Amino acid sequence: MSKTNCLIGLAALLCMGTASAQIPVGGSVPPAAIAEVLKQLPPGAATNYNRLRIGTHLDLPSQLKTVHEGANYLLTPTGYRLVLPTATSRETQQILQRTLTAAARIGTFTTVETALLTIAGDDVRLVVDHQNKLVAFEPNH
Questions:
Q1: How far is CA 128 from CA 31, 80, 100, 113, 114, in A?
Q2: For residue 56, what are the contacts with CB-CB under 8 A and spacing of at least 6?
Q3: If both were cysteines, with which of 16, 28, 39, 82 could 24 make a disulfide (CB 3.0 to 4.6 Å apart)?
């Protein structure tokens, strides 16, 4: 069985609530493969679980330099989008402009949500709008 077929079966089981395994994304499977898997699920099936809880291999490519680039890379296969800060949101702009640290390339298996928090830093929290599939970073004061 191909890797894609395994992922389709696993995604279907997750959507039906009969499996607790994780679908690897990011460094484990190309983002395009995950997007293809999600397209092949029955209508509505891919919306029955939190896509930010999908498993990912946190080993971002070396060409990604900032939190903004890393977050977009992690979010692309999930269908979620990063909310860009307004001109008045200086703190959020600074978070997105941070240089990725070694933590972004540690090679561990985690969820997309945890990976986003890892690359952003300890002083950041995620704000998620699941209905509109939007994610934003904000300072954790």
A1: 20, 9, 21, 10, 13
A2: 24, 25, 26, 27, 28, 74, 109, 110, 111, 112, 115
A3: 28
Domain boundaries, the chain: 3-139
pLDDT digits (tens, 9 = 90+) for 51-107: 898 888 888 999 999 999 999 999 998 889 999 877 658 889 999 999 998 888 888
- Tokens representing residue 107 in the block: 């090679």
Burial of 43 (0-12, 13-18, 19+ CB in 10 A): exposed
Q: What is the pTM for the complete model shown?
A: 0.69
Question: 108-121: per-residue pLDDT in tens?
Answer: 888 999 999 999 99
**Residue with token string 């389709």:** 8
Q: How far is it, in rounded angstroms, from Cα 28 to Cα 128?
A: 24
